[in-house]
Design a protein that fits this description.
Length: 184
């Protein structure tokens, strides 16, 4: 059995404070969990169709992005599988979701949409000019990263099991399609 090809995609414009939170979460996951092997990390910026090939080639996909969750700033919500699809197909909630939905449609048309896929959305506070997230959103980054690790463990990534076990002990199992964590 070949190891799964897992893509971690961070989306956002890092020049617009919280709008770049997806890229910041991607970087934190990569730096704080170097023991997670065989992951492909891509800074997707503000998306482009060039990412379609990466999505078509992966077996598992985790996307970090700022998302309008109608929740307090810094709220983190993980939507997996059909929950992710429903969220993306609903009302426009992020400047990137139209592009992400288009990329998923391409993968569907080619029969290569990953079964294991999730969006980890973080409620922004500000999308004004700024090189770093606002304090409330910055505090949510470790929560988003741990939700990603929990998903990897749930999807059978054995190296993530030890890391995720501490996260699950805190009550965040990731067994459902939705995980919600508010910062405060």
């Amino acid at each position: 059995m070949k190891p799964s090809n897992t893509l971690i995609l961070g989306i956002g414009n890092t020049l617009l404070s919280d709008e770049g939170v997806g890229v910041h979460a991607l970087n934190l996951l990569q730096s704080s969990h170097p023991d997670l092997n065989d992951l492909t990390y891509i800074d997707g910026g503000t998306l482009s169709f060039t990412l379609a090939a990466y999505i078509e080639d992966c077996d598992q996909l985790i996307v970090f992005d700022a998302a309008e969750l109608k929740a307090p700033p810094g709220t983190v919500k993980t939507m997996a599988g059909e929950h992710m699809d429903a969220f993306l197909g609903g009302a426009r909630r992020s400047p990137h979701e139209v592009g992400l939905l288009d990329l998923f449609d391409i993968a569907r048309l080619t029969g290569s949409l990953p079964e294991n896929r999730a969006l980890i959305g973080i409620q922004p506070q500000s999308i004004e000019w700024g090189m770093s997230p606002t304090p409330m959103v910055a505090k949510s980054l470790p929560v988003a990263v741990e939700q990603a690790v929990a998903l990897l463990a749930q999807w059978g990534r054995t190296e993530a099991l030890a890391v995720a076990s501490g996260f699950e002990a805190a009550g965040n199992t990731g067994k459902t399609g939705l995980m919600d964590q508010r910062q405060g």
